[in-house]
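Sequence in, structure out. Go.
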Amino acid sequence: MLDLSIPMVVSAAILFFTFFGIFTEHFHGIHRAKFAMAGAGAIIIAGQILGFYSPELALEAIDWNVVFLLAIMMIIVSIMMTTGGFEHLASYLAKLSNGSQFKLIVLLGTAVTLLSLILDNVTTVIIFGPLIILICRNMNVSPIPYLLAAALLSDTGGVATLVGDPPNLMIGSAAGIDFNTFIIHMGPPVLLAWIGILFSMKFLFGKELGQAVTNVVEQELEYKNKKLWYKSIGVLSFMVVLFVFHHHIGWEPWMVAAASLTILLFITRSIDLEKVTQHIETPLLMFFISLFIVIGGVEHSGLLHHFGEMFKPLILEHPVIAALVLLWVAAILSALIDNIPFTAAMIPVLLTLQNEGVNVSVMWWALAMGVGMGGNGSHIGSTANVYIVTISERLARETGNPDFAISPGLWIRKGTPAMLITLVLCSVFIWFGYDFLYVDL
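Output:
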């Protein structure tokens, strides 16, 4: 029987109602950031009354590295989107496919995956989603396989790097994992998952991808600002180099991004800073800040430490089994709900064990793989998925063709099998590559 104190019970109740409001956003229509803010306020007040939390501790609980990095990357992407470079790249890949639909899905999928290594998956699909629809309409082919592949591969590609997915930022910042360590250990399983998704797309959409293309793309779209595009690419490349060495120079990832943005702003004086900062997704940042405060309060109540002690024997006695259990539980829950709250709840549990001298390195990797791959399991599993579904529904309305809408049933038939394939591949990798994943952090 659980021996819970009053602060534990109260914080658990606040956590439950906050997460319930977040997870049921699609039913009540209230933005999840509002529930997170309400939960943050409730747990601060409850903590002051019961003596386990305070506004000062709430500020300390916020991981500003994650918040600042997300905001800065949003600004950099908003600058790049004004150049027309992404449109040019997409049309070039369509021309390169020479009418082969599977070749096109591989080329676009590769571009989406590579972009997701540096930009978060939501930003990647916001860039490529409309471009895919434009290209497919010009080629007179169904955009459904390409849109679904973009969502799946952006979620998958983002797992490979520290900055590719918001949960990775949270895990890396909390556990002290640098950019190089992250990509070295997550790169191989992500490569396996990437191959698995592409082949599953070929099998699941065999009929659609086998149809002949009537209109082949023969020319690329022109740049809107070619000079700014190349400057942005140069700064982005410099930022990647700094990410590789950030641990050696003592810079946090947000500092690397801030330095890169500053350079870009100075080498391109025509950028309107006020205009590009309008594209910062403030509700998302508010959601993260509030969520950190809620989880910080639950941690200070002692509840997460209590649960960490419950799972400690399994991790110590059967570490591989524990990692596999975490992988699948994280994936299933991330398919049903959003992966960010689950990640936020698990981080303090693993940190507690790590601070007690337990090596939980494999558990960190299992968590990252689980929440990343699991997001592919349903149409609401990640924000990127929700966006792709939304633009497909808009396309169906505009064209009067309901077949262009990605329904929950279609996702279950096409997306869920792809997720299961990636989880099986990741499970095999954990089982046989345990020693490779086991590192001192």
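Check: The chain is about 80% helix and 0% strand. The radius of gyration is 22 Å.
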